[in-house]
Design a protein that fits this description.
The protein has 187 residues and is of the alpha/beta class. It contains 6 helices and 7 strands; from the N terminus they run E-H-E-H-E-H-E-H-E-H-E-E-H.
Length: 187
């Protein structure tokens, strides 16, 4: 099997990155993580790229420079899939068009509900009984692209934003890799 080349964009702790890297080590997983790019100098998730000897870039620059440098690196490394995993920046429409259908994201809600930030507080304020996460293709609108996969969790009466985040993240670690398999029709 010929694996696809993937790049993971992060801004923080890289817990989804870690899960994707571990799954990518499986012979039957459809991607190799060939590059990790962070837009934050203090993103602790870069430690996973280092630990697994994956090339990485820290591009703590303005959005325009970030996208120019990232685009060059992605083309140079023949990247087939970009995974946004805790990447807390909105990519330009031009960048998204350049990689049409090759960018996926994970969002901590059952889209189309609760797009954007402060998801867990908003779920709790609305007294939702079920929430979860969605892996979706990225299009030009925020948290809008076609869903690939959703995972659900029950919201309990004693949940606070921190507990709910932990429950949803546990599902995220499974969902992202399942979605990547689904994108490439691997079971």
């Amino acid at each position: 099997m010929v694996k696809k080349n993937a790049c993971i964009f992060i801004s923080g702790t890289g817990t989804n990155l870690k899960s994707i890297i571990r799954n990518s080590r499986d012979y039957n997983f459809p991607i190799n993580v060939n590059l990790v790019i962070s837009n934050k100098r203090n993103a602790t998730g870069i430690c996973f790229a280092k630990k697994f000897s994956i090339p990485h870039l820290i591009l703590d620059v303005n959005k325009k420079k970030f996208e120019i440098i990232a685009r060059k690196e992605l083309h140079k490394r023949k990247i087939n899939l970009i995974c946004l995993a805790g990447f807390m920046s909105i990519l330009s429409k031009n960048f998204i068009r350049n990689f049409n259908g090759q960018i996926i994201n994970i969002h901590p809600s059952l889209l189309p509900k609760y797009k954007g930030l402060n998801t867990f507080k908003r779920v709790l304020d609305a007294k939702e009984k079920i929430t979860g996460c969605t892996v979706h293709f990225v299009d030009e609108k925020l948290d809008n692209g076609r869903a690939i996969l959703k995972k659900r969790v029950w919201v309990k009466k004693n949940d606070n934003a921190k507990k709910l985040k932990q429950k949803v993240q546990t599902e995220e670690y499974k969902a992202y890799s399942e979605a990547i398999r689904k994108v490439y029709n691997f079971s």
